[in-house]
């Protein structure tokens, strides 16, 4: 199986081109195998680039635990770079079908290669039942969530996938590693949830760490950064345009007046190769 390793702000995935090649019969098993950082290629999961009847291409994403997710903001930027740089869809404005709908992307091209991508991530979903979460309120803003002996104030947002955002005084390993998995799997989130811990630097700037559903801590999460942008406005902590500092790099976010969230960030191809493990 031919693959390409790519990352967006350190959020790395193994990409397989299914435009001219068959989609694998057992994507969950392959995703678990290739994502292993010791015995596999290494990554936060696997993304298949597939044909689409409604857009230029379709993206399917599988987390490192094999579960299929709806969307990945960093991943979709890399999909756009891959199809542009490899002359599969030579357009600087693309439409990509995802499990959360069709997204519009604009590529910033330098010397014939896509370097950065701006993504219209669509409108945030704030209805509790549609996120989904059983926490009170709709929208769910600064609601109490008790986890493992500690209480958090959380705001819940879906960007096509569920997010639970909590603003803290200081980011730490303990917050992420002790509470990330517990919040992800809390009973208030029927489909589990992604978790963002956020430290506000100024109304225009935040730092954040992410516990991704099905993958654990990742260096960046595009949909998570978008959810943080929305949550910051809902909690009157930040402006509608912010820079998010993640462990893998920076993303620019805007919750525009048309209610769409726009994300701009890098997309990088690392290497390509042949996956030799015998998985059919």
Task: Summarize this structure briefly.
By secondary structure, this protein is of the alpha+beta class. The chain is built from four helices and 18 strands.
Structure explained in plain terms:
The protein has 280 residues and is of the alpha+beta class. It has 4 helices and 18 strands. The chain has an 18-stranded mixed β-sheet that branches. Strand 10 (150-158) and strand 11 (162-167) form a beta hairpin. The longest helix has 13 residues, at 73-85. The N and C termini lie close together (10 Å).
Keywords:
2 domains, single chain, 18-stranded mixed beta sheet, Diaminopimelate Epimerase, Chain A, domain 1, 17% helix, 280 residues, globular, alpha+beta
Topology (SSEs and partners):
Blueprint: E1 2-8, E2 11-17, H1 27-35, E3 45-50, E4 57-63, E5 68-69, H2 73-85, E6 93-98, E7 101-110, E8 113-120, E9 143-147, E10 150-158, E11 162-167, H3 173-184, E12 194-202, E13 205-212, E14 216-218, H4 222-234, E15 241-246, E16 249-255, E17 261-266, E18 268-274
Parallel strand pairs: 2-3, 4-6, 11-12, 13-15
Antiparallel strand pairs: 1-2, 1-18, 3-4, 4-5, 6-7, 7-8, 8-17, 9-10, 10-11, 12-13, 13-14, 15-16, 16-17
CATH fold category name of the largest domain: Diaminopimelate Epimerase, Chain A, domain 1
* CATH homologous superfamily designation of the largest domain: Diaminopimelate Epimerase, Chain A, domain 1
**Overall mean pLDDT:** 96
**Alpha-carbon Rg, integer:** 18 Å
């Amino acid at each position: 199986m031919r693959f390409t390793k790519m990352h967006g702000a350190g959020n790395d995935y193994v990409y397989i081109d299914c435009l001219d090649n068959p989609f694998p019969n057992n994507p969950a098993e392959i995703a678990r195998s290739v994502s292993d950082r010791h015995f596999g290629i290494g990554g936060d999961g696997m993304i298949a680039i597939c044909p689409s009847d409604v857009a230029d291409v379709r993206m399917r994403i599988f987390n490192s635990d094999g579960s299929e997710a709806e969307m990945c903001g960093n991943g979709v930027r890399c999909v756009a770079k891959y199809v542009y740089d490899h002359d599969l869809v030579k357009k600087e404005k693309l439409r990509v079908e995802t499990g959360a709908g069709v997204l519009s992307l604009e590529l910033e091209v330098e010397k014939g290669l896509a370097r950065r991508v701006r993504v219209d991530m669509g409108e945030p979903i704030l209805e509790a039942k549609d996120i989904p979460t059983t926490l009170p309120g709709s929208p769910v803003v600064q609601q109490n969530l008790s986890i493992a002996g500690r209480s958090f104030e959380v705001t819940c947002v879906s960007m096509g996938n569920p997010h639970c955002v909590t603003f803290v005084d200081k980011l730490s390993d303990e917050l992420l590693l002790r509470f990330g998995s517990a919040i992800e799997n809390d009973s208030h989130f029927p489909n589990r949830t992604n978790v963002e811990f956020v430290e506000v630097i100024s109304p225009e700037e935040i730092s954040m760490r992410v516990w991704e559903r099905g993958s654990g801590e990742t260096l960046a999460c595009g949909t998570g950064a978008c959810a943080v942008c929305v949550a910051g406005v809902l909690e009157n902590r930040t402006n509608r345009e912010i820079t998010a500092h993640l462990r893998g790099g920076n993303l620019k976010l805007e919750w525009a007046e048309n209610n769409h969230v726009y994300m701009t960030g890098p997309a990088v191809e690392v290497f390509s190769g042949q996956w030799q493990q015998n998985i059919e």
